[in-house]
Design goal:
The protein has 13 helices and 16 strands. With about 350 residues, the protein is an alpha+beta fold. It has a seven-stranded antiparallel beta sheet with strand order 3-5-6-13-8-11-14. A five-stranded antiparallel beta sheet has the order 4-7-12-9-10. A two-stranded antiparallel sheet has the order 1-2. Helix 11 crosses helix 12. The two termini are about 45 Å apart.
């Protein structure tokens, strides 16, 4: 972990992750944009593909170094991409490339077999084989897995060339990478390898689930399932009907499996309550939030204000009203709030 020291204040700050701009056509003359991008050969794309723009060209490409994995992000105009057999045979690249499409479809052609990859899907490409595709103007994130690692994670990598994971099974990984795109700058550099492992776990689970295959690495599968479980809980946190039975049906796994995944947090129901109380506490700390305790109970799945009050005091040691006052607000008449004068 890198620590930056400010000699004036003697305060140490932890360095955060950062998306680095690898290339952008902003500020270039319109007629120079495409040639400048080709000449830059970012991530070897010019070496590995012949490309033909379908509209005035523009691009912005960013890179995030997670220590054990690099993630690329690109917003680019529509064009054809052609990885010829000659290039596949001669550039000595046999990675498995993972392209996560947040916006814009791709039309993939592998030896005459055509597939459409809509927005929200994931496209896999074996760089040891030729492939053509037309991409609409798009926003995507992606990463490349060395062949040896890809073959540890997934069976028959060559058979995955041109494979498209549909939006429904791809949704968790797509949304997870979108979140990383938006919030990586708030996380310390030291968290990079953990984030990278989570991405790889989710990727392996997404692909095997979409193919109806049995995961070969049970530990990896359970780590990815835990991420999926937590995401489902966060998404449904305000629903009073959120419980172990409902999550079991949503995720297609047994209640005992769900309990085991959250055993260190006291089990599923205890984890749900902890997360709900954390949301309530965040609302109480927010000076702009003037909701009553009863409103917060209704929003976050508690049966009434009294039950929320007891649960909150058990977790935080004080009542919701005292907690709010401690963070700069006072209760007025027990129902509405105003800032202290």
């Amino acid at each position: 972990m890198k620590i930056a020291h400010d000699s004036r204040s003697a305060v140490a700050t932890v360095e955060n992750l950062h998306w680095h701009r690898a290339f952008a056509t902003d500020g270039l003359a319109a007629g120079d944009c495409y040639a400048a991008w080709r000449d830059a050969d970012i991530a070897g794309l010019s070496t590995r593909y012949e490309t033909t723009p379908h509209e005035p060209f523009s691009v912005a490409m960013d890179w995030l170094d997670l220590g054990t994995l690099g993630i690329g992000s690109a917003r680019i105009t529509a064009q054809d991409w052609d990885r010829s057999r000659w290039k596949a045979n001669h550039d000595h690249n046999d990675d498995l490339v993972v392209n996560v499409r947040h916006a814009g479809a791709a039309f993939v052609d592998v030896d005459g077999h055509r597939t459409v990859a809509p927005a929200g899907s994931i496209v896999l490409a074996d760089m040891a084989a030729p492939m053509k595709h037309f991409s609409e103007a798009s926003l995507s994130t992606g990463f490349a897995l060395p062949r040896a690692l890809a073959e540890q994670m997934l069976p028959q990598v060559r058979s995955l060339h041109g494979y498209v994971v549909a939006p429904d099974p791809a949704a968790l990984l797509v949304s997870h990478l979108a979140t990383i795109r938006a919030s990586a700058g708030h996380l310390p550099v030291g968290s990079g390898p953990v984030i990278a492992q989570t991405i790889l776990d989710l990727f392996a689970m997404t692909v095997t689930a979409s193919m109806g295959a049995v995961p070969s690495d049970q530990g990896q599968h359970e780590r990815a399932l835990l991420v999926q479980l937590r995401a489902a809980i966060e998404d449904q946190l305000g629903s009073p009907s959120l419980n172990t039975a409902r999550l079991s049906r949503m995720l297609g796994v047994s209640r005992s499996t769900l309990y085991r995944l959250l055993q260190d947090q006291g089990g599923v129901q205890a984890y749900i309550r902890t997360r709900r109380l954390a949301r309530v506490a965040a609302a109480l700390r927010d000076r702009g939030n003037r909701q009553t305790v009863a409103n917060l109970a209704d929003d976050w799945g508690f049966c009434d204000a009294a039950y929320l009050g007891r649960a909150f005091r058990e977790m935080y040691g004080i009542t919701p009203g005292d907690y709010r006052a401690l963070h700069g607000m006072t209760l007025v008449g027990g129902s509405s709030l105003q800032a202290p004068r």
